[in-house]
TrEMBL record:
Keywords on record: Hydrolase
Amidase domain span: 2-257
Start and end residues of each stretch annotated as Disordered: 267-296
Gene Ontology MF term list: hydrolase activity
The family this protein is said to belong to: Belongs to the amidase family.
Domain of life: Eukaryota
Record-linked InterPro entries: Amidase_dom, AS_sf
Organism: Sugiyamaella lignohabitans
Protein name, as recorded: Amd2p
Gene name of this polypeptide: AMD2
Length: 296
């Protein structure tokens, strides 16, 4: 089990070619789990959650099912009533192909290629693809950072000082910590905007019903975990990760295939809608400086 407030389940799973599942808040007990937040802050703003990293989807399902069957909402105030559903899979239950929303990028050429191959396998299996995007993406990344910075990083800096462990160069260079703390009115404004963005996303998801063959909203979204292979000590976040923490949506990382950087060459559009930091990293991308075989 691991915790995730900005990708700490999903990105390690991606980097190691295994499965990582971030549930929505309230599904897995979180009471009294220690993190780098001041006591109490972990229950406000962007919520950290616990979830499995495993070698198979079956193992992820087994862990979440076992937790649900203990009825944790009876003893953990952070849990909501969420018994394990006794139902078939979406495809078997509705007897229809799945409608899968796909967010394509922008991504570096090998990731673009492997996503295209995955999409072909999906359509070959009889399922439907619907082109979608991460609406309000840069704003959500910015808002997530502001919520992370509410206390100015003081608790984290003080915690690091007890062991003389410095903040990483990436954290400092990207201006995450230390920083100016927010006041209570600012935090209220951040929380209000977060709810507005959640409402916008609920509407966007429902509106996808107008683009599917079934007339129902898409069942799931498919996208990369990162727009590029990150450079060591320069990577801070991905436009495909933090937004699901802000929205409190469940998210799963899985390995689609292994790709060979020497043969996967795909033309891609210039970076857009992924945030300033990610755009800078994207423009530095050079496949020749990375390993020749990477899992995605």
């Amino acid at each position: 089990m691991a915790t995730d407030i900005g990708g700490s389940i999903r990105f390690p799973a991606y980097a190691n070619g295994v499965y990582g599942f971030k549930p929505s808040s309230g599904r897995v007990p979180y009471y009294n789990i220690k993190g780098y937040w001041p006591p109490g802050e972990e229950y406000n703003g962007v919520l950290c959650v616990a979830g499995p990293i495993a070698v198979s989807m079956r193992d992820c399902e087994l862990i979440i099912k076992a937790i649900a069957e203990t009825e944790p909402w009876k003893y953990d105030p952070t849990c909501i009533y969420s018994p394990w559903p006794k139902q078939k899979t979406l495809a078997a239950d509705d007897k229809r192909p799945l409608s899968i929303g796909v967010v394509r990028g922008p991504t570096a050429e090998p990731i673009t290629s492997i996503l295209a191959e995955a999409c072909k396998k999906i359509t070959d299996a009889g399922h439907e693809l619907v082109e979608m995007e991460i609406i309000n993406g840069p704003e959500m990344l910015d808002l997530t950072t502001k919520i992370f910075q509410v206390d100015g990083g003081k608790f984290l800096v003080d915690l690091c000082s007890t062991t003389n462990e410095p903040l990483t160069k990436t954290v400092i260079d990207n201006g995450l910590y230390p920083c100016e703390p927010a006041d209570l009115s600012q935090f209220f404004a951040y929380s209000h905007r977060r709810i507005e963005l959640q409402k916008a996303w609920a509407e966007y998801w429902e509106q996808s019903a107008g683009t599917t063959a079934s007339g129902k909203p898409v069942d799931i979204l498919l996208m990369p975990i990162s727009p590029f292979v990150p450079r060591v000590r320069e990577f801070l976040s991905s436009p495909f990760i933090n937004v699901w923490n802000l929205l409190d949506y469940p998210a799963l990382t899985f390995t689609a295939d292994k790709i060979n950087l020497s043969k996967h060459k795909v033309e891609i559009p210039p970076p857009s809608n992924i945030g300033e930091t990610n755009s800078e990293q994207y423009c530095k991308y050079d496949s020749s400086s990375n390993k020749k075989e990477i899992s995605h």
